[in-house]
Design goal:
Blueprint lengths: L4 E5 L2 H18 L4 E4 L4 H4 L2 H12 L7 E4 L1 E4 L15 H8 L11 E2 L8 H14 L5 E4 L21 E4 L2 H14 L10 E4 L2 H5 L3 E6 L5 H9 L17 E6 L28 H16 L8 H23 L2 H5 L3
Parallel strand pairs: 1-10, 2-3, 2-6, 3-5, 6-9, 9-10
Antiparallel strand pairs: 4-8, 7-8
Helix pairs in contact: 1-3, 9-10
Amino acid sequence: MSEVKVAIYKNADEVGRHAARLTEQLLRTEPDSVLGLATGSSPVKTGYYPELVRMRNEGGLDLSKVATFNLDEYLLFSLNPTLDSAKDQSYRRYIWEHFLKNTGINTENMYIPDGLTPNPDRHCQWYDNKIKEMGGIDLQILGVGSDGHIGFNEPGSPLNSRTRVVPLHFSTLVDNYHAFVREGGYDFTDMPVFAITMGVGTIMEAREIILLAAGESKSKAIKQLVEEPITSQITASKLQEHPNFTVVVDEAAAKYLGKQLPEEANRPNPLDSFRYPYITEARKVYDEIQAFRMSNQTTMQSPELIANLKAIQKRFLKRIFDTNFGGIQELLSPK
């Protein structure tokens, strides 16, 4: 097992600048590299994507020959695919607005999981195959969740997993309620319940991996993925086995490295007990939605189809929230 390389910087901005310099070194020598892009908050919070754009605009960094593969995307079963507005919460729009539109990268070389695909399982297989067809990912950029997950590979995910459809963690559903309903203006039934994500096995095939993290909220996860035993409960810990893996963090995120976690850091998240009770049902709902969609291919985006998809999803969401918290309103009321 290779020793994990850790670079610690004073603040988030320095994290982003260092990671961008590492990326620049690759692209100056291999301008046709394939980049794997993360769509979480870390690359934006640290200024990683803006710094690459600055290097292009002010430093002459040529990105035109680069190809990109996004790490994940919500599976937007019931949203109208013509939606193109500030309400759009898809990762496709997120990465376009925060990075891709300012890079000069050929749009034909931008690969993002299709959240509106009529056959998600087949699309996942195609996505993995496309990565291989392009020669593999040269540099994969990652963030990490506070519970140590990468992509949507939540705790318990197989460490050899491939690109696939996964049900969202319960805490993600809670977080997304605010993004999709309160901020996005969507109906409750438009919240995604599933996502497409590169698997841990897919991620591990990248030739180089850089993981960015900033802030104290990531400190426990950084400790676990760098120094503790590899486990499927901390999917990022698998990265310890990668021969060219670098962690770039600020001082706050690195606060527990070389130290023992305090007792309060080991207290379980109250949402953890709701992590998997609905996984089996989620798969049944996914199969039900797929069967319905495949039987209505000629009217894939008809109002009737969308209404039926919403009805299936609404029943599922309501059961999740009601079963775990005795009612959605109590859980989602303003704090």
